[in-house]
Structure formats: C-alpha cells, structure tokens
Design brief:
This protein is an alpha/beta fold. About 40% of the residues lie in helices and about 20% in strands. α2 runs antiparallel to α4 (about 50-65). It binds S-adenosylmethionine.
Length: about 300
Amino acid sequence: MATVRELLAEGLGRLRDSGSETARLDAELLLAHALDTERTAILAHPEAPVGDGAAERYRAGLERREAGEPVAYIRGVKEFHGLAFGVDPRAMIPRPETERLVDLAEAAIAERLLAAPRPASGPKLRVVDVGAGSGAVVIAVAAALRRRGMLDEVELLATDVSAEAISLATENAVGHAMADAIRFREVDLLPEWEVRRWDVVLANLPYVRSDAIASLPRATTFEPRLALDGGPDGLAVIRRLLDHLPDVLEPDGVALLEIGGDQEPEARALVGERLPGWSCALEHDLGGLPRVLVLRPPAAAA
Ligand SMILES: C[S@@+](CC[C@H](N)C(=O)[O-])C[C@H]1O[C@@H](n2cnc3c(N)ncnc32)[C@H](O)[C@@H]1O
C-alpha cells in the first residue's frame, strides 16, 4: 500500500510535468479529496498508508488535472468568503478577488439598514446580483447579513442569462439554507417585469476581451465562455448594464460592479460617457488592483 508521502511525490511529479504552476497544492487537495478528508489531515500524517480505492480515485483526479481541468471542478467544491460552494462546469469558479465585492456589498447594505431599519411590515431593502454564476456572491452577502441579524430586512434577487448557472446557484442556496431568502431568475441582465427600483445592484459580469480568452490559463477552457467573454473591449456586457442603471437604481442607490484589474481607465471613460453626472469611485482588491466600480446617481453623488 502506498503512503501519503509517496502518492504526493507521484502527484507532484506528474502535475509539474503537465505544466501546473500549483502542482504541490493541487496534489495535496486531490489526495485529501480522494480520502474524503482535509488537506491539513494528510499533511500531518505523511507515513499513513492509503487504501487502493482512495489511491485509484486520487490517480483519476491527477489524470483530469493533467488534462488541465481545474482542481475545483475535480473536487466539486470551492471555498469563497469562508464558505464552501458546489462548483461544476455549469458556472464559473468564484475567484478570491471577488470577495472584495462581497465585503463592499455587505458594508453598503448594512450602512443603509443601520440608517433606516426596515420593519417587518414595510418594504425591504432591494438588492440584486446580476450574473450570479454559482451564486457565490449573493449567498456570501446573504450569509454575512444573516450573521448581522439583517437578512429579514433585505429582498435578494440573483439573475443569470445561463439556465445552467441558475440551477447550480439554486442548489448552492439550498446547501446554505438560503433557498427562502434569495430568488433566482434566468434572464438577460434584469427582469423587465420588476417595477420597483433597486437599492443596491451588484455584478461580476464577464469582462475578458474576446481576443484575450485564448491566452488565459488552460483551466479556464473548462469554464463557460459566457462567464468570461466581455466582447471586443471586455466591457460589452457591463456597458449594457450601465445603460439600464438610470432606470433601475433608486436615486440614493449604489451599483457595485467588478472589473478587470487593468480596466480602470476604460471603465471610468465608459461611465463618463454612459452615465454623465454620476459619481464613480474605484475600490481595490487585496492584491492592490482596482477591482470594483462604485457608482451613484447624481442625486446621491451631490
Ligand atoms: C464572471 S462570471 C461571475 C459569476 C459569479 N457572479 C461570480 O462572481 O463567481 C459572469 C456571469 O455572468 C453571466 N452573464 C453573462 N452575460 C449575462 C447577461 N447578459 N445577463 C445576465 N448574466 C450574464 C454568466 O453566465 C456568468 O455566470
């Protein structure tokens, strides 16, 4: 029977040869997954023998990873904002930089609710996540609000143009006991039947330039192109959302839109062109890159 140490060494070699830049971590995660345990548990017991069934599952995972598949799809799970989300090719794997969007959303919502609490009998604060994918953003925001005891004061909608993404997001909401707290809709950007405006609009829409997609890491070829492709300048979908904002955002509302770390100049120019008079600030992610556009209508900007 092979030991943990031996199997990790085998995985490290195979994944390095296949071009993985995170070969050691990948091997550890895949072995822990095959053993149905935590990565820290296997690292603590390098001489432990691994049964043949687990070794076989591990090698099957290595094979998929060698073919370029992301570890998160092989494990079927990704940690995001301290929560575990089911992931598979129905939706993009949530990225760590998007945790900034969650923090900003939580702060914007909490600020509004502290200033004007919503009694159970009255209208709730309305929040929409456009392009929800796996549901990671809206569910992480909901979880943060639940911890603050504010979830009942908020109406949450999550949209995606992909039916497959909506099905995964709905499963994740059920997994986090949020099925009653969040509505999901398959729709292009926002539902036309919504008559009331939104207090907070969140979005991490596709923002990769079409001609840059081929140069992304191989793992991204396993993710839906619809989740990545932002058109010729990367801002085609975001541009369409900007054009909707004057009609859908409350005059004192805020829109928080994730962009690519190299898109600040183009994004600012776009806001100036499509939303004259609006305030436009940029928040940075933990890596120091400009990441989230913070947009407010002229009335609130003044
Ligand atoms: C970059 S992924 C982000 C997913 C998720 N919000 C996250 O942060 O992990 C973009 C998502 O936007 C969706 N999308 C693309 N075009 C859309 C549109 N016109 N209306 C609604 N959703 C759209 C894609 O299907 C995809 O799920």
